[in-house]
Amino acid sequence: MSRKFQYLSALLALLFCAAPMVHAAEHVTLRNGFDLICARLEPQGEHVRLYMHRDGTDYLDVAATEIVTRETVADPVEAPVVASAASSSAAPAFTRADVLRMVGEVGVKHRLDPDLIASVVAAESGFNQRAVSRTGARGLMQLMPGTANQLGVDDSFRADQNLAGGTQYLDALLTQYHDNLQLALAAYNAGPGAVAKYRGIPPYTETRRYVARVIRDFNRRKMLEKTALATR
Description:
Layout: H1 9-18, E1 21-30, E2 35-38, E3 40-44, E4 47-51, E5 59-63, E6 67-76, H2 96-110, H3 114-125, H4 145-150, H5 159-176, H6 181-190, H7 192-198, H8 205-230
Antiparallel strand pairs: 1-2, 1-6, 3-4, 4-5
Helix pairs in contact: 1-8, 2-3, 2-5, 3-8, 5-6, 6-7, 6-8
């Protein structure tokens, strides 16, 4: 079985307040307990369309009666993925469907929810397996060369190896922080040393945005999954 996590609106509120904000967004709490940050809401008769992004490309339709509370909040800036195509690697290219299949496989191996892994991949590289950051982190889960070496990853641009190593590292962090997801994500982004130094999530804007972004995307994926199951 996968680890189970509790996601509290207070956590997201804490992270949002700690970082510079722009644009208005809607914080919506649903009857089933889900908390979502939406770019905007649009009534559709007896339903309400919740747009997850400002460009309107991702949305959920929920019954109006399912919305318990809503409030206008400031939406944190989504930091763009700093990545470029690496032309030196001969690693095979995989489709997004291939990557999601592999995400499911490594999730089962490490008892991690595949949606959580997918949310980390989305935040780290935008599913670009040849992504390279300014600091030299590589691949889908943005492994630094030293970390990749310790995890037995020979080629960080190989999607299967990168996902295996990155998930193993995330699993180890969750174990280290006793399944405290926000601390594990903060350590994944800023390093365990920074979490130890500040005895919690470091006061780095990038890290706080990162943690909020992953959790928000994870909640979105779980909501989509729940909606899909309910309509079958």
